[in-house]
């Protein structure tokens, strides 16, 4: 009970920290995840909505809602793939790229601040133990730094 209780409290505290940080950039966590995924995808930073749904492990409806908000804010575009007009490619705008670059830098600083009580070895050990537990419960991430692990 103490392990799961502490994990639960830690999750709530971490989520609060993330909400405040992302709010400073006018983003919700899901919007940050979409922009960060597009940024990691490489030039020209375009993916299909299906690719985004798979990488974020949310429904296509959730991705559509996130994309609608990001298009309205001017951070992403949706354009038909010239090679296949049935496919829509989502890409970062210059404003979206600038925003996510600044937000990721602030996010990494925030993560360092949150984890400052642990030295690098402790952080590595904790990450490995948590990964083992996640995999044992059916988490499909096989890479030590899964897409959601910015």
TrEMBL record:
Q: Which PROSITE patterns match?
A: HTH_MARR_1, HTH_MARR_2
Regions that span the bilayer: none
Which residue ranges does the record assign to the HTH marR-type domain?
1-135
Please give the Pfam families that the UniProt record associates with this protein: MarR_2 (PF12802)
For this chain, one GO molecular function annotation is: DNA binding
Q: Which SMART domains match?
A: HTH_MARR (SM00347)
Keywords for the protein's UniProt record, in alphabetical order = DNA-binding, Transcription, Transcription regulation
The name this protein goes by in its record: MarR family transcriptional regulator
Species this protein is from:
Actinomadura syzygii
